[in-house]
Amino acid sequence: MKATRLPHIWRLALAIVLPLGLMLCVWQAVEVARNQGIERLTHEADNELRLTAASLRGQLSRHAYLPRLVAENDQLRAFLDHPGDPSAEVALNQRLDRMRALAGVSDLYLVDDRGTTIAASNWRSPSTFIGQNYRFRPYWKDAIGGGEGRFYGLGTSSGERGYFFSASVISPSGRRGVVVVKVQIADLEASWLDQNADIMVTDPHGVIFIASQPSMVLHTLDPLSEATRNRLLDTQRYANQRLLPLRLYHREALPQTLERLNVESPSEANDDGGAITEVRNSAGDSSHDSAYDIPAELLQLTPGDLWRHAWLSLSRPLPDIGWRLHVLKPLAPLRGGIWQAAGLAAGVYALLCLLAGLGWQRLRILRERQLFAKRERLSLAASQQRVRGIIDRTRAGLCILDEHTRLVYLNPTAVELFGAA
Fold it and tell me: Is the pLDDT of residue 314 over 80?
């Protein structure tokens, strides 16, 4: 019935509002699922960052003592005064090779005060370090004055990535030299293969030096300036590598993760004490190892759908090493949960709309029944009134009896004939 139908303007409004409400509901559910999924991934990445940082420090620090220990060797110190003795050179090379094998490092060698290698554990190799000059290397400059040094980069002879520890050595006659230990970076990467994430390490210039994906190694996150390239060439840290930036199809910062992680993350102490060490990045800003200094990011390294090919990247500085550690978690596992949330939201919205429609239909039927009953009562009353009018106007005496033959009504003519009942 027209009386119980919605006006045309209301029906038109519902036709517009209901689809918009569906889209809004699904969008909100997707946003909530996305944020919760990213927050969960961020916490997982944070835990993996801590474990990986501790593992990386542990693997490097277990070799830090070796240069100082080797520098105390009497045979090595004596050879500094007589580097031209062939028999002494062979004996020292063999001893360095045995030390290298026992310590589990890649190479162990001795450099004189002019920066020339005079003994090495790889003395039998075609690419031996003997005769090579490393005066330009920072680890030689740091140690030759009596201290210790650390350095990472590509080997000029082998072309392999390595981490170098150095310590000063002084001969009995006072001649100085440097003992150098090289650790292969590939050995560090091997421990990351079983993790459910990709790991990469960048230097202060953003050069990827270590990565669980070999294709990322010796690339950069951002293009290098000409001044930075010149500084790297001076130390031959990466030899003549091109250091091209990674191709990023999408990069999005997630600033909301920064404050939350710093609030939830307890302070960490460095291996060499309780104080927090500062390190300057390529922009000249200082960062602390106890706090995240940049937010998490969404990085897409391959073309296609963002949720299929993007990664959540979380990083934190390692000031005591001079690196930044990154963990990349794939977003693909979140895709199913987001679709489920969207489907659930659409289903709940449709159910609510159906229940509202059923409620409106029930209310409409109830109103129609009430209107019908009212019309029936009015029709019956009108019919009774017409019959009574006909009876009252007739000239014959008429009476109405009920089912018990009791008199219930006399028309005016009957009242005149028989008197009042």
Answer: yes
